Amino acid sequence: MSDAATMSTPILKLEHLSMKFGGLVAIGDLSFEAKRGEITALIGPNGAGKTTVFNCITGFYKPTEGMITMTRRDGSTHLLERLPNHEIPAKAKVARTFQNIRLFSGMTLLENLLVAQHNKLMLASGYTILGLLGFSGYKRAAAESVELAKYWLEKADLIDRADDPAGDLPYGAQRRLEIARAMCTEPELLCLDEPAAGLNPRESLALNELLMGIRADTGTSILLIEHDMSVVMQISDHVVVLEYGRKISDGDPSSVRSDPKVIAAYLGVDDDEVGDVLVEVGDEQVIEELDVAPDPEHGPGASSSMFAGSVSDTIEHSDEDERIAVSKGASKAAQVEAKEARSAEAPDTTSKGAK
Amino acid sequence: MSLQTSTQPTSPVQQALREALIAGVVSFGLFFFFIGLKTDQNIRNELVLVTRWGLLTTVVVLTMIVRFLYVAYAVPFLARQKIADAVTGLLPDSTGTKFFRVPFFIGSLALAAVLIVFGSAIVAWTGPNIGAYVTLIRAFAIIYAVAAVMFYGRAFIGRNFASIGIVSLILYPILVVVILALLAWSNGSANITSAAFQGSLKWVDNFGIQILIYVMLAWGLNIVVGLAGLLDLGYVAFYAVGAYSYALLGTHFGLSFWILLPMAGILAAFWGVMLGFPVLRLRGDYLAIVTLAFGEIIRLVLINWREVTNGSAGISGVPKVSFFGWFTFNVSDPNYISKVFDIPQSGAYYKIFLYYLILALALLTAFVTIRLRRMPVGRAWEALREDEIACRSLGINTTSTKLTAFAIGAMFGGFAGSFFAARQGFVSPESFVFLESAIILAIVVLGGMGSLVGIAIAALVMVGGTEALREMEFLKSFFGQDFTPELYRMLLFGMAMVVVMLWKPRGFASSREPTAFLRERKAVSGSFTKEGHG
Amino acid sequence: MQYFIQQLINGLTLGSIYGLIAIGYTMVYGIIGMINFAHGDIFMIGAFIALIVFLALTSLFYSVPVVIALLIMMIVAMLMTSLYNWTIEKVAYRPLRGSFRLAPLITAIGMSIALSNFVQVTQGPRNKPIPQMVSRVYEIGGISISLKQIIIVVVTAVLLTLFWYLVNKTSLGRAQRACEQDRKMAALLGIDVDRTISITFIMGASLAAVAGTLFLMYYGVVSFSDGFVPGVKAFTAAVLGGIGSLPGAVLGGLLIGFIESMWSAYFSIDYKDVAAFSILAIVLIFLPSGILGRPEVEKV
């Protein structure tokens, strides 16, 4: 798999992307690539800026800085940060789904999928005028669009409910419908924002199959945000890890899985286990701190994490240098990083994660 | 309301008594100043207060009685009905069959027939005061008979509602003339045809044309509000643009209606786009106030731009519509209809012609709406109403989608406006006040957003109902000769808006017809559709 | 310059009245998210009650000091108008809370039509003039300020201070702000939401009633149709200032007042309303949520 990955070309390239909301830096200098035909997963703790990255890619936010390049199959490139957001699906062929499902709930499943083929049908209907007069070209296009909708309804296992309103579907089916709807725009890159959120294991499995099927049948590349590690580890070829708007790790699932920064930051490690991880990699300073009881005056009190610091010093936004200054206690990855920097001077320290 | 203060369970009657007492106190407070006291001018033109304690007492007692009956009987009945028929919210069949019985039906038919044939004789015998009751009873008998037919044929009517509606609309003027001819014959009047045509004026013009204008306007606004989900409180502006386009171009350049009708539509559509541009980014209530302001701006310009619009005095002498140049409806013209066909002169021909014209225009609106809903642009409108962000994520250009909705909605408003000018022969800014926008919007919402049939029913009920108040002459025998039911028209209209909305918050037809289907067309329940926030 | 200051004072007077009405719109919008279209007519009802109280006072007593007469008019108008708004909320808006968003808008429009026609039917369609209550005019450096204008501005300022205190410093105000943020959560925390909303309507109506009394005193005439134009202007003011924001409502009211008086003074009196509406549209193009309104963040 990794051979194929290195050979394939990047479909989406983010370079030095940053996004600020007032003084808040949601993404700071982020660069990564998604390769054609791969499933790239974007993971990170809550508030890491994953959805903001999605919103920048799909044009809902205009990034403060940076470049997002989409390379289509025919070789044309599109700078997504310059396109108005309705042209991103239409011209650059990037489709997306939403974290809190956005279906046209009062319309039937079939209608949902027909709306997704709007631009194609608009053209076929001669911008409504020819269609209104009943030209046959539009009728043919309309029949074709129904066929495409049927294809994706079957793929998503929703064909039996084609004539029901979308709002009537159970949650898991709504997720699948949203993906089917995005696929009806015939995208080359499909961006999925937490597609497995709220699904039960069986539905999660069905989703995996749907996504693998999409890639196998249409060659569509997929970029997904996910918290469900079983999904991430099973289907993704490439994982990018974000924390506080920065990339902290990038690689195939197995390497990311064993990256201590990632473990510390995110991967299924509870806050009080962070210490264990750090002990494992041998950070004396932290071990010393762990021995001392947390200071109630400075500590976050009720918070479960003694590393989290009080609310005010968790993230500092300094306007001058436009990057996040994270306090010592906040970023677990930063702790590991600092430790690694030190351990680079002492070559005998064992480093488990890297490579 | 259902809170119980004591531990002892209260019976519905006890509770109703308490509620009635509260209602009495509140209504006394509300009405003391407005009904109990009246400001009047005395001979020296000074304001003085006149007291009306009797009327105040009557109103307060009436309020208490109504409240008592409502809490004691209507609420339990409605609760039972809800359990019986939770899905449709219609009266359960058992209630209907109790009310509509075959013997009653035959009786009402017989009564109506007797009163139609001998009505004039009875009135002549009893005098006008009791005669008014005869007319009332006759009306009730006819309404009962019609309602009974509708009740027993409800399955058939439900299935073929649209076609039955169109056929009866087409037959309506003919039926009116025929029935009036029969009445004239029963009265033994000398000239049956002219009496029938003359009498049909009121029914065709005040009811038929008036209602159809509102149906058309509401169908036009439905594209903007019902389909695209954009709240437009200034729709009357486009109606005004259409009316003034026809009035100005018709009087100054003498152009024919058939040229100016499409032109008025295009001009109104242009203004729709002009309004659309600045409001594209606005949401909900911001959109509402800007559209309202737009409507007011247009009206104020019409009032103040006296050189062109003649200000509040308006433009009179707007030319009539001709029958495609074949014959006209101007008595002085050489090809006046009665000269061409050699029939007696009557203003009714023009009204009947106008009736069919507005019917055709309204049906055109409906036809275009139905076709557009099945086209990508129509689906995009509805998708926009459901979720604008999802639309953009699917590559739909929401800007142009909104603008087409505004433009097409405005175009139909413009058509209706030019028809209005031709019908009245006179336009003035008075006809284009905010109230008109509010009435049109109310019809759209009361009908059930997006549903053409529901909107037509709402227009019939609201406009027809208030027009019918003009006909309530018999009330004079109740309330005295200086009683003018017309005065209460808008008061009742406003109250009806509130009551209907409380009764059916999603309108008469709350379900949505899907535009495409694979296996079967199932109506989408109104609880899933959204109303848009733009 | 004198002329300009004169117009400024006229605008301030007008703006105070608009501001008082606009607060009712903005509070109701803030708390239940609906446009209370009947609010303009509530203002008219307030003016009418003040008128009737005035007539009752003059017919019952030989002479009443103007200050006391005004106070009584204001207080009775506030009470009775509050009763109107309370009833309307209970009858026409509460059953529709949480349903379809347009439904309460339509009932509000229906209520507006019903209220103005109710007054027309019960009180007759004519204008109702009263003799001038306050006629003193002060001349300061060529600028004439009437006592009426001073009363209006002072009463408005006092009421707004009181109101500001109510909303920001009392538990009632806290409950209102909580309901504005999240009604469900407020209910879970033990706030009586229905009561809070009722009180909001009562507060809005009281301010509108004061505005109505001042309107009657200033212009000396009222008719059943007088609710619509000030209502729409005040609504415009609320939106201009940023609907949902209380300082915004006052600011918007003053702005609309200034625009109107300046436009009538320097351009044409015919187009003063057109100017006010056009400026609203222009401001909203650049600031889609008004001047002081919280910008609506598009949540994706």
From TrEMBL, chain A:
Keywords: Amino-acid transport, ATP-binding, Nucleotide-binding, Transport. Residues 302-313 have a biased composition (Polar residues). One of its GO terms (cellular component) is plasma membrane. One of its GO terms (molecular function) is L-phenylalanine transmembrane transporter activity. The keyword RNA-binding does not apply. It comes from the Bacteria. Residues 12-269 form the ABC transporter domain. Pfam families: ABC_tran (PF00005), BCA_ABC_TP_C (PF12399). Residues 291-355 are annotated as: Disordered. InterPro entries: AAA+_ATPase, ABC_AA/LPS_Transport, ABC_transporter-like_ATP-bd, BCA_ABC_TP_C, P-loop_NTPase. One of its GO terms (biological process) is L-alanine transport. The keyword Ligase does not apply. Belongs to the ABC transporter superfamily. This is ABC transporter ATP-binding protein.
From TrEMBL, chain B:
GO terms for molecular function: branched-chain amino acid transmembrane transporter activity. GO terms for cellular component: plasma membrane. It comes from the Bacteria. The chain crosses the membrane at residues 20-37, 53-78, 99-124, 130-152, 164-187, 207-225, 230-249, 255-274, 286-305, 352-372, 403-421, 433-466, 486-503. It is found in: Cell membrane. CDD domains: TM_PBP1_LivM_like. Keywords: Cell membrane, Membrane, Transmembrane, Transmembrane helix. Residues 15-83 form the High-affinity branched-chain amino acid transport system permease LivHM N-terminal domain. It is a multi-pass membrane protein. NCBIfam families: PRK11301.1 (NF008450). This is High-affinity branched-chain amino acid ABC transporter permease LivM. The gene is livM.
Automatic annotation (TrEMBL), chain C:
The chain crosses the membrane at residues 12-35, 42-62, 68-88, 100-120, 140-167, 199-222, 234-259, 271-292. InterPro entries: ABC_transp_permease, BCAA_transport_permease. It is a multi-pass membrane protein. It holds the Pfam family BPD_transp_2. It is found in: Cell membrane. It comes from the Bacteria. The keyword Manganese does not apply. This is Branched-chain amino acid ABC transporter permease LivH. GO terms for cellular component: plasma membrane. GO terms for biological process: D-alanine transmembrane transport; L-alanine transport; L-isoleucine import across plasma membrane. GO terms for molecular function: L-isoleucine transmembrane transporter activity; L-leucine transmembrane transporter activity; L-phenylalanine transmembrane transporter activity; L-valine transmembrane transporter activity. Keywords: Amino-acid transport, Cell inner membrane, Cell membrane, Membrane, Transmembrane, Transmembrane helix, Transport. Belongs to the binding-protein-dependent transport system permease family. LivHM subfamily.
